[in-house]
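Give me the fold.
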Amino acid sequence: MGAQGYDLDKVTIRVSSELGIDPEQVWTAGKHPITVKARSLLYYWAVKKLGFSATELSKKLGVSQPSVSISLKRGEKIVKTGKLELVED
């Protein structure tokens, strides 16, 4: 599953690289702005590029489905504003 062999672990590494944080911080619970941004990017790319459903992702990550949906919208804005791509050229 995934874009060019990407899975959740590789997406986590890509997100952490893009934001200049440790991969563990992507998975840290809480509302710190950089962590929220990281999770939003992760959820967006996992759904849009890897083919996860919001429900499947919420179960896998232990968060509510509405939380994933809200983060998806936030992630989409981050991607469009920053012109970010999961797979760099």
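The chain is about 65% helix and 0% strand.
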